[in-house]
Design brief:
alpha/beta; 15% strand; globular; four-stranded parallel sheet; 32% helix; 6 strands; 5 helices
Length: 171
Amino acid sequence: RESESSSVVHVMVAEVWDGDAEIAEIAGAVVSVAGVSSSSSGSSARSPSRLRMAGKGVLIVVPARGGSKGLPRKNARNLGDIPLLGWTAHAIRAAGLDEAVCLLSTDDPEIAGIGRGVGLDVPFLRPPELATDGASAESVALHALDWLAVERSIHPSAVMLLQPTSPFRGP
């Protein structure tokens, strides 16, 4: 998406189902999108210092609407003793992306409360038209980008979308 300064924001969808895939690999891709290159000499884009540097220009969007059909209220449930959203919040911290702006996008006040409880920022409730079966992940990410630009004057260089329904990510 073109911003006012003509720079391109890259939207990255990170759905990780494979137990061997690591969120650090996804974050490494964000590092390169954000302009922090990795060297081929043993120092990888996954190093915590490089991830923190990249995190400064990254928006992480965690989409979690309340009206799931297949498993009703799935985003408000626990997996083990941890809320489903807690697994995603933990993966973000474990990947060293503490400096990234991370927003939970939800239409549901209960899910918003759970998100706040696990350390996610929930500054708004998603509008109803973005909480339907037909709403795209891209439109949810663009809504979060627009909100950040207007309300906080933040213009990230990259967006990472982390689905809470993919809880088994490695750090």
